[in-house]
Amino acid sequence: MTVNLDGKLALASGASGDVGGDGVTATTVIPGQIKTARIDYPDRAKTQRESREVGEVTRESAAAIPVGRRGRPDKHGAAVAFLSSDSASHITGSSIRVDEGLIPSV
User: Fold this and answer.
1) What is the widest separation between alpha-carbon atoms in the chain?
2) CA-CA distance, 52 to 68, in Å (whole number)?
3) 53 near 47, Cβ under 8 Å?
4) Could you read off the pLDDT of 44-77 as tens digits, one per residue?
5) Cα–Cα distance for residue pair 99/83, rounded to 1 Å
6) pLDDT tens-digit profile of 87-101?
7) Residue 1: what pLDDT?
């Protein structure tokens, strides 16, 4: 199921009101480009189409991201683990960007 960004924002806000009284938090995580095989596929395809080196295309793609690299699954997982912890029990109804600065604004 694909939900657009506005839907994700509304989901967190609406759900927090519905379940907050039961001690449940509702926070959405908005990821950027997490370095996985699925995200690497377009770069590999581009290298074949344009007869270029993989490293060159990967660097070019990463340069479009403000921090200059794609996210790592373990780093995104750590953010979700924190948001699921008691330390984040006061965070609800929010959408947290874990996107390496890729989305200019939310």
Assistant:
1) 57
2) 20
3) yes
4) 999 999 999 988 998 998 998 999 999 999 999 9
5) 15
6) 999 888 888 889 998
7) 44
- What's the CA angle centered on 61, arms 56 and 67, to 5 degrees? 115
CA distance 35 to 86: 28
Q: φ and ψ at 86, to 5 degrees?
A: -65, -30
- Residue carrying structure tokens 């596929």: 41
Rounded to 5°, angle at Cα 58 from 52 and 61 = 110
Residue (of 35, 41, 106, 26) closest to 77 by Cα position: 35
- Domain spans, the chain: 1-32+72-101, 35-70
CA distance 29 to 13: 13
Nearest CA to 98 among 55, 34, 36? 34
* Whole-number Å distance between alpha carbons of 52 and 90: 49
Distance CA 44, CA 53 (A): 9
